Amino acid sequence: MNDTVVTLVGNAATGVDYRETPTGGVARFRFAVTPRRWDRRNSVWTDGSTSFYTVCAWRNLGANLTASVNVGDPLVVHGRLRVRDETLDGQRRTFVDIDAVSIGHDLTWGTSAFKRVARANTALTERPVDMSAAASAANAPTVGNGSGNGSGSGSGSAVGPGAVGKPVHTQPWLSEQDESAVPVGAAGVPTGPL
Question: Are 77 and 8 within 8 A, CB to CB?
Fold first, then answer.
């Protein structure tokens, strides 16, 4: 890929505009980046000229962005840079867009509380149950309570992709309570984008 990937630190200059499209939902907002420099002569911080970018976030990122970001919020935006030229009213203008891969609050300026969103579409988090998956699960190592030998045989309580029981903690950032909501047999492993 020849994409130019950038990380910008700034503030949300406008509210987030979310729209549904045939390819999925998209959220757009203007992002202001103002560099600050130390002026040695006057011993003060001075602001440089502000650059504005249009940030686009697709699908789940766009939906979560709409519920999380307000005008003026300090943000860190990571994504692909796109520069395009258009002629409007006889004048040629240049637009700079960012196709966001991830966006988060800049915790230098405050605190933020993360809340995991429950997905309505379980196909994104479940693995399909078929005979080939069951056969590969039977040959896969299982996680027990320490009494098994790790090869799938033994008296340990085996928990794997095809086993019945408590899910394996495959996502250490989730608490035990969060993983209990994952359907048995999914083992907490997402197979698609979140």
Answer: yes
